[in-house]
Design a protein that fits this description.
253 residues, six-stranded antiparallel β-sheet
Length: 253
């Protein structure tokens, strides 16, 4: 309830209007109505929170392996995870998680947008599944001057292609590096890379296939030292699969 001072000015709340005096001038402000969120709005908010915590878990896991992002990773990954969960074909809001979603939305995600893999390496890796359950990774031969961008350095820099199979289970709250494999990209006489993986994947597990470029310098005095940094750290999700009943798919449904 508003009160009136000896000067005739109102102070306090009257209905949906707030009265006050500023430098001798009477001011009135409309007070926002307290609108309660709908049940659907609450569910959407809870699902956004789930997407955010799931994305944070993935980001932290990737950084424990690859170290460098550029600050936008969390927001970008949250958006993709939320879209993937929302694309679940069979479950409703608040009854689903990433295990029910469409994992294909995660493919192409760049850990570091300052050095996206598709800009640093201009030939594209491929990841696919074979009929007998193997995962196949291929990388075409490349022309170094045209197809690969090196970090700026006054010393010679070498580069390894690195592929990691990462298992995630958010319902049982664990992650595991299933396998990690790498080879040097040779400036002369490069042959294409062809690897097969035959991982034993537990039931209801998400598998992310990650490719990175690991730049390094090497000499007899200092040995091998990484040249990757916040400015140059290409890492991409090139495959995403959900394993259930002995088969892989892009969705848990």
């Amino acid at each position: 309830m508003a009160i009136i001072d000896p000067m005739g000015n109102k102070h306090g709340k009257e209905g949906n209007t707030l009265f006050r005096v500023l430098r001798g001038v009477q001011i009135s402000q409309a007070v926002p109505l307290n609108i309660k969120p709908s049940a659907e709005s609450k569910k959407s908010s809870i699902e956004f929170g789930l997407a955010s915590t799931t994305a944070a878990s993935i980001r932290n896991t990737l950084l424990s392996i690859y170290q460098w992002d550029e600050g936008t990773t969390g927001a970008r990954l949250t958006g993709l995870v939320r879209t993937a969960i929302s694309a679940s074909p069979g479950k409703k809001v608040n009854e689903r998680d990433l295990h029910d979603g469409d994992l294909s939305y995660l493919i192409g995600f760049q850990l570091n947008n300052r050095s996206p893999l598709d800009k640093i390496l201009r030939v594209r890796p491929q990841c696919s599944g074979s009929e007998n359950g193997e995962l196949i990774f291929t990388l075409p031969a490349l022309r170094f001057k045209q197809d690969l961008v090196y970090p700026k350095s006054p010393i010679a820099v070498k580069c390894d292609v690195d592929v990691t199979l990462l298992l995630l289970n958010f319902r049982e709250e664990y992650y595991q590096i299933q396998e990690r494999r790498g080879t040097e990209l040779m400036p002369k006489g490069l042959q294409s890379v062809y690897w097969t993986f035959d991982p034993a994947i537990p039931q209801d597990t998400i598998l992310l296939v990650l490719m990175s470029l690991q730049f390094y310098a090497e000499d007899s005095v200092n040995g091998r030292r990484s040249m990757n940094s916040q400015a140059m750290n290409p890492v991409e999700i090139i495959g995403a699969y959900y394993f259930k009943d002995g088969r892989a798919s892009s969705s848990g449904e």
